[in-house]
């Protein structure tokens, strides 16, 4: 065995090109021509294939790095024979350029004008138009006998990745094992195919990658989790007085103090007392995984769709710290700069539609979490205090819970405790 340093090959006139995908990791065995990394210029994406077979010994680039021709991508462990023959041609430098990059292809699917068709199982809707996939992915699809038209793309710019192929295969196997389409699996009718043009003018708006990913996740979560939604109002009159008093101070420190930071802090506090609300079902359905950390996700509306950044260890952070993290993460989400790590690890999610104005809604649980808090618009309403009606600021809360894990009594207790904590924010200190 010998180590070969694999370098960025000739990529034309480009320099400082973004690494947008790392397709291998240390320990992986690759064949010649397997894709190592994907680069993206302002004009095109290109995959850098392995110049030879071997085992990845070390990675020298990271996601988001900028690279130019000659930069080392990784170290590859290759058999002596190979490296020896390379040594001859490369004057024993033990450095190889990766193979010439392969541009990401976009090709039309076989049926140009189709809008949507179903596959042979009659239950998977096939997307229309064009599929985008690299030659490596196309080769994999051929080997696995998968029609790329059937695959939901999760790669950048709507590209199908190797993982998409494996995920498709996994779903197909799971479907077969659970009784195919006639057994215990959902035996749904295919989506209706309607030519809307028959009824009037239409316009096609392509869905963003985030839209498509959200759609798949939301559908799965809605179908698999038995949701029950519980409603209550939190009296946030005192909290609002406190917040408005502090707002100017916060602004001087560059912080926008909204109710959301209090909602996040209170959630982390109340979850401590309700371990199963801060849990997940284990994959085999045998255990409840109770998490001893409290990471709170918050739904964020972005031009490309809904994203859920996460405030880690929210219970250990002050309100100002949480507020400034919300601002920073929401800004990153809206400008497409959120890193994958900043969206991972949530144990509970808050979806606040407050600023948009609803009275109640059913938020969909973000699997593998088991509960989510929907927040609607606070309003001043008359409340009977035993003697007279007094104006109080009420915040409508909608808690959706996974009924497999959280029964009605527990959900009601959690929601009541949460509303009480928001009503008297001193509870957070206890
Ligand atoms: N009731 C009344 N007013 C509310 C409120 C509520 N529940 N929540 C926030 N507000 C107010 C804020 O106090 C602020 O007003 P102020 O400046 O006078 O204090 C104003 O609304 C704007 O708040 P916003 O800028 O939206 O900040 P935020 O911290 O409340 O929310 C985000 C930050 C990122 C969550 C928010 O901008 C967002 O994207 N919300 C949409 C989430 C979504 O789409 N959920 C749906 C999932 S299905």
SSE topology sketch:
Elements: E1 2-7, E2 17-22, E3 29-30, E4 35-40, E5 45-49, E6 54-59, E7 66-67, E8 72-78, H1 80-89, E9 95-97, E10 102-103, E11 105-108, E12 117-118, E13 125-126, E14 130-133, H2 135-144, E15 159-160, H3 162-177, H4 209-224, E16 227-235, H5 237-252, H6 259-273, E17 279-281, E18 288-290, E19 296-298, E20 300-302, E21 305-307, E22 310-311, H7 319-334, E23 348-352, E24 371-375, E25 379-384, E26 389-402, H8 408-423
Helix pairs in contact: 6-7, 6-8
The structure holds coenzyme A (COA).
Report what the structure shows:
By secondary structure, the protein is an alpha+beta fold. It has helices at residues 80-89, 135-144, 162-177, 209-224, 237-252, 259-273, 319-334, 408-423, and strands at 2-7, 17-22, 29-30, 35-40, 45-49, 54-59, 66-67, 72-78, 95-97, 102-103, 105-108, 117-118, 125-126, 130-133, 159-160, 227-235, 279-281, 288-290, 296-298, 300-302, 305-307, 310-311, 348-352, 371-375, 379-384, 389-402. Strands 16, 19, 22, 23, 24, 25 and 26 form a seven-stranded mixed sheet that branches. The chain has a five-stranded mixed sheet with strand order 3-6-8-1-9. A five-stranded antiparallel sheet has the order 7-2-4-5-10, with no helix packed on it. Strand 25 (379-384) and strand 26 form a beta hairpin. Helix 6 (259-273) crosses helix 8 (408-423). The radius of gyration is 26 Å and the shape is globular. The N and C termini lie far apart (61 Å). Mean pLDDT is 85; it is low at 83-93 and 105-128.
